[in-house]
Write the structure tokens for this entry.
Amino acid sequence: MPEGHSVHRIAARFRSDLVGSPVSVTSPQGRFVQGAAQLDGRVMEDCFAVGKQMFARFDNDLHLRVHLGIYGAWDFSTLHAEEALAGGNTAPVDREGQTGTYAAAAAGSMGAPRVSRVRAGEEETSGTASGAGEQWPPAPVGAVRVRLLTDRVCADLRGPTVCEAITPHEAAAHLERLGPDPVVDGKRRGWTRFREKAAHRRTPIGALLMDQSMIAGIGNIYRAEMLFRAGIDPYTPTVDLREEQLRELWDDWCRLLPIGIETGVIVTRTELRGKAKQAMLESVADRHHIYGRAGEPCRVCGTTISLAEMQGRKLYWCSGCQR
DNA sequence: TAATTATGACGAC
DNA sequence: TCGTCCTAATTAC
């Protein structure tokens, strides 16, 4: 899940569902109790992503900084109480204690409200109020590092590599260390920044694309797929690339990131249309050119796809197509 | 029940 | 380069 596209999606969801609301902040797991107390009850004023990091600013100027790492995830639940509210004579969910069950909150209403849950980036599922697990707010499941709760939205974070409350100064310091992100910098300024940082490095391009201070948001899947699309051997020292090749990599990231944000899926086989595209979106086996396909034939030239370790991560490439 | 794996990054050598 | 941290799902036994 979490390469840059996912984090931008999550930030967008925070902007639409939590920004502007006072937020109850807790740490059901108990490992973020102090930080949660600093943010609890404050209004979230903004939320944005740069690369793989998310920053949410609260009305006391503290920022919640979250990095999902390799397996962190946000789960969202939403209280759908439109029917209850439309009844006009029903109290909404208790905003202070948040202890009332969802059925109780809906007492006397016409339609049954629902609680829907969704893992960031997946489709929504919903249930009815009668189920044991359909309380509002939902009972925390597993190791929930932080829970952000408004009157109708609950966001649970588990397994992050970073979750901290920091000052604006500290947030600025983190942002400064990050390379350009197409969404933040735009195509032109981003290219200027990327070229200045990267062009003279001897680092293999396969490693450089994973360096978040060089270019922000690319992870192991986009790395493999972008180098395949560009026909570049991952071991090529960055300095040995022609400027057009480096430019093409940046332009491709500017192309792919918005598709990932839009679809919630890492789409790199952009040549596909119709049924082939549908199959690609539905089947893991068809999803990528290179990533996860070691030992299988390249879809373009038939060469067996190679696998090696680079910086402790699995690197996939086609020695036939990438030179 | 245990081992394995994962879309990440950091600090110690 | 290696070990470490964070969690959950899947696979092996």
In short: The first strand of chain A starts at residue 24 and ends at 26.
